């Protein structure tokens, strides 16, 4: 009884731990594939686990590979560099590793590196020869490593070895029990560190069991080639399923237990198969359904309830916890969906290439092998809408209006494009069709829709239409505004048109839509939901939708369903307004965050059914929503700093989990991430990520460098940040993430310190202080010396000033003396001028006297000697001698010579000393030339004729030895 209770408790804990991992039956879950090109390692992956922080690790052929949601990296390898085949992790995040011919454990160091330690050295040499360690399990404080040759039990740093007699086949952990299948003994159980046979365990021989699960009916056995079996009451019985043919043909390679009795079965050739506890097929996800490789090696449910699948060629993340799934088939050819409709158990979708259908009931039941979308013949272009009108299914296409019957379409009207159709209120036999260039009318005659005519008076594009209770037709034109039409009685023309745009209260005339909710006409605008005020006819915000959706977002769609909910697309968010008993609404948006940015712009469409199915037409195909799928969106997760490196020197890593990029540093695993950097390394590059793997590309980050920035940055998709020229300080880099569900992660921090440059260290400041003191001392000394020099200079300047004053006085005295000398010189010049005038006057008088005497001599010479020759001859002779004496007298000449020498710087003496051969007559002639007299003026002074003056000049020229071309007067004047 106690054993039974323990088993029940174990099952409860097991199922409670995987409650959120139930996979949807309708549609195919979203799958994220990671190829070897993406993670840049070997294609083969054998195991997967997640640590307490949420980090994912994979057993890769190249070693242990890590994925943080953004970056992949091989973080460590076994010492023999062999492939990693199995892993297990304890509560302290120590990873135990089984490799090829090696096993050990891995711990993370404070610098981010992972350090591998081999345990093979604890084995005796005789037990060191073994192959792949296929399973690694932690239980009851011990670690079990399984290979085909031996079972290794590691505890308290010792290893117990259990050898296979021939060879083991496989290893199983079922609850707290450990089983081993032996190729000779069958099924064995590990008990007290020994393998003991299970009763009737020999029946397992040859079954090639690959997985065992505990169920209410006994042990469920997954065999490699023979399907599933139940082992109960020591009997093995086949467990029949709907996929036995697939399991037997494609070989089971792995298995996992999901919630609600679901089992995931990995195959070698057909991907993932999910069945329920009764063996019914729930999902078959293979390469055609989106799985990148069909050889499944292992599984792991992560903290978010999603399924990681390791493959022989890559890794896939199957988002089984999401209530959204894709409606795809084996062809998977149509993606862009404009509309959808379920009619007569068939699902129709409108695409760019026409209308398609599939058997919806068969698809829902999981029988999808032969269930594919079939093309409706006769339609090959854009199908904008499809709807049920009466008992007919009509499609509205680029080329007109079509009625769908079976696998073909019949054209009801070939018009220039049809958008959609609506029934005219109170006239169920009249169908109004909105076209590219106006409105058209169809009438139901004898159970069939028949085209009638084009309605006159309105030629605008009519893609979005609604009718009100008064029979008015409301048409939204995305670029103009809203039209309200009223037809005449025969519905062949428009008798009244009213137009509304921003002038009538709308926030803008662009991107307006019209919807009908609770028989009320509403309008979607760029600023919330509007309605018409009945009294003023103005467009005003609707108070109910203002309360729940606000007035900030563009309302693209409002769609009521059969459960009294209102579906909407507001901005980029899709949501559901669920009506409560008190009349209020509950808003639900988180399950639909995946739909952001994948709608066909302007053609957003949501289709609901009475059964609660909801379809979203997107650019990535048709997406199904199941309201009964309960997912936890507020799951906590962590942000982390993946790598820190200094930019200078280039790529100098400080913290990283990448393999062999940092030297190992000893220290406690719990040491705070921190480092002290020189000032030359003040430019850092941070890489960060978040351990939220669902739609990781949509995760946004904010960061803050405490000590440098005042606050957090804005959220962005950036996963790296660089800082340069950081001043010396202690810093803390913070980063946190916000996933697509607006859940903010726990923040990650990195502490570091930038040391000051050498010129701002303590010793530098001490040196600066000493140098400053010396400089101050030198400055004081210099100032004193300068003051002394200035004092001496002042004395010198005063002395110089005194000397200058004395010089000025002397100069003034000299100036006065010069002025006196000038006066004396002036007086002397006046005297000289007077003497010159006197000399000139004497000379003139002398010339005049000599002229008189010459005249007298001439007269005496003319006396007639015959009158009294004897008497008068004697007298006349005496007169003549007297005159000659006067003419040749020297008295006047001496006076002249004395004055002349004074005036002309002793000219006569200098001339005589230079030319001693000159006669007194020659000297006189030279004096007269010095006075610039001409020949006629000189002749009387010398008492000779003009001819005689010329002869004398000639003789003087020779005595002076003057060349013939030299003017004698100029020579005398310049002598």
Automatic annotation (TrEMBL):
Query: What keywords would UniProt list here?
Result: Coiled coil, Membrane, Phosphoprotein, Signal, Transmembrane, Transmembrane helix
Keyword field contains Metal-binding: no
Q: Enumerate the InterPro entries for this protein.
A: Ig-like_fold, Quinoprotein_ADH-like_sf, Sig_transdc_resp-reg_C-effctor, Tscrpt_reg_LuxR_C, WD40/YVTN_repeat-like_dom_sf, WH-like_DNA-bd_sf, Y_Y_Y
Residues spanning the membrane: 762-782
Entries under Pfam families matching the protein? Y_Y_Y
SMART domains, alphabetized: HTH_LUXR
Signal sequence, start to end: 1-21
State the coiled-coil residue ranges. 792-826
Q: Which residues form the HTH luxR-type domain?
A: 915-972
Would I find Signal among this entry's keywords?
yes
Q: Which PANTHER family match?
A: HYBRID SIGNAL TRANSDUCTION HISTIDINE KINASE C (PTHR43547:SF2), TWO-COMPONENT HISTIDINE KINASE (PTHR43547)
What protein name does the entry list? Y_Y_Y domain-containing protein
